[in-house]
Specification:
There is one protein chain. The chain has about 600 residues and is of the alpha/beta class. The chain has 18 helices and 10 strands. Strands 6-7-8-3-9-10 form a 6-stranded mixed β-sheet, sandwiched between helices. A 4-stranded antiparallel β-sheet has the order 2-1-4-5, with helices on one face. The chain is elongated and about 120 Å long. About 35% of the residues are buried.
Length: about 600
């Protein structure tokens, strides 16, 4: 995976997080308001020190009840203003964090959904989900909460130091000398926290990937009675993540402890020196009280900055992971200047000298020297043993991949010169294993045509012979199908997928043995629907059962990624030894099943 410059190990947390601020730019007004209330509350907080001084000198020491009452009322008024400003500061900063997090999550998803399929061969879905959820949630916390705390604490730290100088110069010098000592552990432990945070996020992604795979294949796990085995394996993954997290929190704990120790040790020294000055009359009790207030404020600000610094280091790892993903460029894109979609020509599809290797298997040719012409309205069957390259042909036609050699023409135009949306719009795919979404029936059928009316959806279901069983579901077309359509049988899933293709009404129909999951009765009905759908339409069928394609206009025999023969069923019985062998094996198996 390519790395952005921010992913280098020596890059600072700020440099890693800096590109994230482009997502904040559209909300400048909200940011300005949030900063205003942030400065406002910081100013009020700093003024509280003078209020403490007034209460002590003008109230307690003077012995006047009237002056004490007045100073307390002033102090209450300042606290009211502080609460007022805090409400708007917190609300606005939290709003910005949530809004930016939502925008980042959307941008990441929009990026993922456009990436080429080979990317998903090399990267786990669990890791991508971790980036989409966990990493963006962490950034939301940083932008909406931690960043606000850091800014506020920085203002308080600087303002507190100024007020310390104003109140007492000698005591302030003690604080100033101690501040660099507090910053040293922040720098030392912060880098370690950042590195461990990135490792922790990776470990969490591993957990999500493992759990998702087991849950998705729960029936296989239970059928082999591997529950305890998988429990132990998952426990091992969790322990790995815990060990990484333990190292991270250990470093953060050292960071907090060092800051607190050094900070309050400095305050203790300051109190000892200041107490001597009060006893000698060099300063008033109110001045010492105000100075203590500001010193504690500075100490708390330093501690908060240290804590947020650790969070920023952790967020830098998440930002790097997200930026790496957002920086990716898909290998399959529409051309910058696409050609107008061509009108119908004599040849619907032409494959010229195609050579292709999957990116994950660059040394193993998936297709070699493929030359094939498919005319409009023809039904062409692709047959051959597993691994012959049949499915790869479908993937190249839909431009999920581009061949390393040769070209594919649609209506005499290279498909790489056509807009991707237009190319895929004219093709309809019915896979051998139907893919259904975790939604209702209507959504799954309507996926073939998002603006379809309920009447069109119902009509497509009827043509796929699916309407009858759909109406028997608890809520009909609004019945929820569960994850991957788990509430339907294999044959029912297939008919929903066929209805989706019927609704799309494509120019080129791609069928990957679309009736393989059906029983004999359902296959008869669905085959009739497919025959109607295939009428006057270019159809390419991946055939595993040769009995379903003996009437195809053209049968392409493939083996080892090559076309070894082309012809009709009758001609291939005499010209192709491989086709003969496939027929003999299948028809003998069918005959033996009948005799049984």
């Amino acid at each position: 995976m390519p790395q952005t410059p921010s992913s280098k190990p020596d890059a600072s947390a700020y440099q890693s997080l800096k590109p994230i601020f482009q997502f904040i730019a559209p909300y400048k007004k909200n940011v300005v308001l949030a900063l205003f209330f942030l400065v406002f509350t910081a100013g009020i907080s700093l003024s509280l020190g003078q209020g403490v001084k007034m209460v002590i000198d003008n109230g307690f020491i003077s012995g006047s009840l009237e002056q004490l009452t007045q100073t307390i009322l002033v102090l209450i008024g300042m606290i009211f203003l502080l609460a007022f400003g805090t409400f708007f500061r917190f609300y606005l900063m939290s709003w910005i964090g949530e809004r930016v997090s939502a925008d980042i999550r959307t941008a990441v998803f929009n990026q993922i959904i456009k990436l080429h399929p080979s990317y998903f061969e090399e990267n786990r879905s669990g890791e991508l989900m971790s980036r989409l959820t966990t990493d963006t949630a962490l950034l939301q916390s940083i932008i909406g909460s931690s960043f606000s705390m850091a800014l506020r604490s920085t203002f308080m730290l600087l303002g507190g130091l100024v007020m310390l100088f104003v109140t007492n110069l000698k005591l302030t010098m003690i604080v100033v000398v101690c501040v660099p000592l507090v910053l040293l552990p922040m720098m030392f432990f912060g880098r370690r926290v950042r590195d461990l945070a990135s490792s922790s996020q990776d470990a969490i992604a591993d957990i999500g990937t493992y759990a998702g795979e087991i849950i998705q294949n729960i029936k296989v796990v239970q059928s082999y009675s591997h529950e305890k085995l998988e429990q132990a394996a998952f426990g091992g993954e969790v322990e790995k993540a815990f060990e990484v997290a333990k190292k991270r929190i250990k470093q953060r704990s050292f960071l907090f402890a060092a800051v607190i120790l050094l900070t309050f040790a400095a305050i203790s020294v300051m109190l000892w020196v200041g107490g001597q000055d009060v006893l000698s009359g060099a300063m008033t009790g109110g001045e010492l009280g105000a100075f203590i207030f500001y010193a504690i404020m500075v100490a708390m600000s330093v501690a908060t900055v240290a804590e947020v610094y650790g969070e920023l280091q952790r967020a830098a790892g998440s930002a790097t992971r997200l930026l790496e993903l957002l920086a990716l460029k898909s290998d399959i894109t529409s051309p910058e200047q696409p050609q107008q979609f061509p009108s119908q020509s004599n040849s619907a599809i032409v494959l010229n000298n195609i050579g292709f290797n999957y990116p994950s298997r660059p040394d193993v040719p998936a297709l070699s020297d493929i030359n094939l012409t498919i005319n409009h309205g023809e039904t062409v069957a692709l047959v051959g043993p597993s691994g012959a390259g049949k499915t790869t042909m479908f993937e190249l036609l839909q431009r999920f991949y581009d061949p390393q050699q040769g070209s594919i023409l649609l209506n005499d135009t290279n498909i790489q010169q056509l807009p991707l949306d237009d190319l895929r719009h004219v093709m309809g795919m019915v896979p051998q294993q139907p893919v259904l979404f975790s939604s209702d029936v209507s959504h799954n059928i309507g996926y073939g045509k998002p603006d379809a009316t309920s009447e069109e959806i119902e009509n497509a279901a009827k043509r796929a012979h699916a309407h009858e069983f759909i109406t028997q579901l608890p809520e009909g077309y609004q019945s929820f199908l569960g994850e991957q359509g788990v509430r339907l049988s294999g044959g029912q899933k297939q008919r929903v997928a066929i209805a989706r293709a019927i609704l799309k009404d494509p120019d080129v129909l791609l069928l990957d043995e679309a009736t393989s999951a059906l029983d004999a009765q359902s296959e008869h009905h669905v085959q009739a629907a497919l025959n109607e759908l295939m009428s006057d339409r270019t159809t390419i069928i991946i055939a595993h059962r040769l009995a379903t394609v003996i009437h195809a206009d053209k049968i392409v025999v493939m083996d080892g990624g090559r076309i070894v023969d082309v012809g009709t069923h009758q001609s291939l019985l005499t010209s192709s030894p491989l086709y003969q062998r496939l027929c003999e094996l299948q028809f003998e198996q069918a005959k033996s099943k009948v005799t049984e």
